[in-house]
Amino acid sequence: MMIAFTMDDLPLWPQSYPPVGYTAAGIVDAIRAALADHRITGVYAFCNSWPLDKHPEFAAILDDWVADGHHVANHTHGHIELPDVTAEAFIADIDLAEARLAPWLSKAPRQLFRHPLCHWGETADKLARVNAHLKKRGLTPVDVHSWAFEWTWNRAYRNALDARDTEAQTFVRESFLDFSVAQLRHDMAAAEAWFGAPQIGITLGHNVPFFADIASAYFARLKSEGVEFVPLEEALTGPAQTAVGSVVSGEFLVLHQKLAAAAGQPLPRFPADMVALHARIVEMAVGQTG
Ligand SMILES: [Zn+2]
User: Fold this and answer.
1) Which domain holds residue 156?
2) Within-domain flag for 55
3) What CATH code is carried by the domain that includes residue 190?
């Protein structure tokens, strides 16, 4: 399996500040170290610029990211979701991020954009307006074939850390490695079936405490399962890329799931044998909103 790994939401996970024992910079440092250990290079981080207004010192997080040979891309200024705002407001937020992130965006080989929560717009009018603006600005929209739901594992992990429950922490770590492999295989098989050919998969991680702690083991596990990490640019070709932003979708779905849903053929989100595990992690995550 060829996979282009990406990050979302640098320099600060929008849902919450890091808990005691973690910092925004420390979380990204750990992920950078894991990427370096596994020789995964040229990773695009889809960034929000609002944290830089509140915390100018977070600019160093993006400086360090780019100094490692990774890249920065636009993920809006405020991490606003298109279904929640007008097309005009969304476009203004894209442009604000372009201005604020310019020192780092200008160093990237490609000018890329990812919609917050991968929503493409819940009306044809919004979708068309945003697509036209991206085209005008020379921004290529980038979607995702598979996500690992590590943000849900993060909430379960934070509860286990708060409870000082080492058994629960171990369960959260080990179950994530099993789940993430099964989820990736499930999504890539579904993408291959949908597009009629094997795909270079685009995956993502978030800068949350759990991912900082598990990233190295996660990359090692994926490699042991035969994953080859390739540059994102290699995945931005062909019918899958042409399909990005081609249908109305305000749902939290990966690329081929959005296309299938729009065609009236919704696909299962999880592998059948992982539904119960995911539900258990959701239960363990109760009470954590970050
Ligand atoms: Zn995001």
Assistant:
1) 2-284
2) yes
3) 3.20.20.370
Q: Is the pTM of this model over 0.90?
A: yes
Q: Which pLDDT tens digit goes with each residue over 38-95?
A: 999 999 999 999 999 999 999 999 999 999 999 999 999 999 999 899 999 999 999 9
Confirm whether 289 is domain-assigned.
Answer: no
CA of 75 to the centre of ligand 1 (A): 7
167 CA distance to ligand 1 centroid (A)?
A: 30
116 CA → ligand 1 middle, Å: 5
| Rounded distance from Cα 8 to ligand 1 centre (Å) | 5
**Token output for 150:** 């590590």
Q: Quote the CA–CA distance of 259 and 253 in Å, as a whole number.
A: 9
In angstroms, the CA 130 to CA 243 distance is: 15
- Domain tally, the chain: 1
**Distance between Cα 79 and ligand 1 center (Å):** 6
Q: Read off the pLDDT of residues 207-258 as tens digits, 9 standing for 90 and up.
A: 999 999 999 999 999 999 999 999 999 999 999 999 999 999 888 999 999 9
How many A from CA of 124 to the centre of ligand 1? Answer: 22
Q: Name the residues around ion ligand 1, CB cutoff 5 A.
A: 8-9, 116
Rounded to whole angstroms, how far apart are CA atoms 119 and 290? 20
> Residue 113: helix, strand or coil by DSSP?
strand
